[in-house]
Specification:
The chain starts with a strand and ends with a strand. The chain folds into two domains: about 5-170, VC0802-like, CATH 3.30.2130; about 185-345, Vaccinia Virus protein VP39 (Rossmann fold, 3-Layer(aba) Sandwich), CATH 3.40.50.150. The protein has ten helices and 14 strands. By secondary structure, the protein is α/β, with parallel strands linked by helices. It has a seven-stranded mixed beta sheet. Strands 10-9-8-11-12-14-13 form a seven-stranded mixed beta sheet, with helices on both faces.
Length: about 350
């Protein structure tokens, strides 16, 4: 089997399958998606060598992880899983690291113990056969061995420049005791998943200015102050006292959906609960009017046709912004029925 193996949030397999199929078709690539509800992953089968290039990980909305398929092994003997894996890897080159994983789904989570123990057994066998370097080498692709059942395994390749750098595609973030709310993790993850290291260094400098629309109780404002940005937090509700105590926050009791800044800002962030099309159109105004240079915001999705709504909202945002923008969107691990969008000038 050739194609892609992509992880997603459990329950969003149809959305990921629709996204992969539509984007591949628009690029003139033949293929088909295989998805099972609540499996936590989607396979897109295609023998077109262009597939990975036209579906980069950072541009996929519903994919937590994107891997190139090597093989699918079904009905393997639990007494000897290593031999068929070595046979499937023959002639496929060397790998700089090994990740043994399972999808993030209710059905697959019990496989975590097997994944850990099997990795310890497989690693020396791979090195003995020359498939795996003695020490981790980030210049080479990673080998992913993905258990979906005890006798059903996918083998896949992950390229460092075009895949999530975290196991299962999930960054392990800890909610600090002084975080005003769990929503702080959304913005922290967005900064990791939607911006690369160079962008974080250039675009998040101490002294920059930002607006947090619908800020209460202050989770996103708190994240921005940890990067030493000066924040105007717009919400009729209260902010936590220790957020205000940073000296970097100006709290305006106003409607964040209609407020506009008196002068241009470096950043605008928004996690308001509102219809996604209204949010997309309103926040596009911020770019069209030059009120901000960069933005991160959430779009709350409907229960049905979520890929259709995502595509419509992103197209609407790009059209109404009225200027060339780089736009990236992801359904993050800490998101639920929503996606998070990053926008910056091209």
């Amino acid at each position: 089997m050739t194609g892609l193996l992509c992880y997603c949030r459990q329950g969003f397999e149809p959305e990921l399958a629709a996204e992969l199929g539509e984007r591949a078709a628009l690029a003139g690539i033949a293929g088909y998606a295989k998805a099972t509800r609540n499996a936590g992953y989607v396979v897109f089968a295609s023998d077109d060598a262009r597939l990975s290039a036209v579906l980069p990980w950072r541009e996929l909305v519903f994919a937590r992880q994107k891997l190139a398929l090597i093989a699918e092994l079904r009905g393997i003997d639990p007494k000897d899983r290593i031999t068929p894996i070595l046979a499937a890897l023959a002639g496929g080159g060397r790998y700089g690291d090994l990740w043994v994983e399972h999808p993030d789904s209710d059905e697959a989570k019990p496989l975590a113990g097997l994944a850990r123990s099997f990795g310890n057994a497989l690693r020396p066998a791979l090195r003995k056969q020359g498939f795996l370097t003695d020490k981790e080498d980030p210049r080479l692709p990673r080998l992913h061995v993905v258990f979906v059942q005890g006798d059903h395994v996918f083998l896949a390749r992950g390229e460092a420049r075009d895949s999530a750098p975290w196991a299962l595609g999930i960054p392990r973030l800890k909610l600090l005791n002084d975080a005003p709310s769990r929503s702080a993790l959304k913005l922290e993850e967005a900064l990791l998943a939607l911006l690369d290291a160079d962008e974080r260094g250039r675009l998040l400098k101490p002294g920059m200015t930002a607006a947090d629309l619908g800020a209460a109780p202050g989770g996103w404002t708190w994240v921005l102050t940890r990067h030493h940005l000066r924040v105007t937090s717009v919400d009729n509700g209260p902010l936590r006292e220790h957020v205000m105590a940073t000296g970097l926050v100006d709290h305006l009791r106003a409607d964040g959906f209609h407020w506009q800044p008196p002068r241009p800002l470096d950043w605008m962030v928004c996690d308001m609960v509102e219809q996604p099309r209204r949010v997309a159109e309103r926040l596009a105004t911020w770019f069209r009017e030059g009120w901000c240079r960069h933005a991160i915001f959430n779009l709350k999705l409907p229960m049905k046709k979520r890929w259709d709504e995502t595509r419509l909202c992103l197209d609407l945002f790009a059209e109404k912004a009225g200027k060339p923008l780089t736009v990236r969107a992801k359904q993050l691990y800490h998101d639920r029925e929503e996606i998070t969008v990053f926008a910056t000038p091209e």
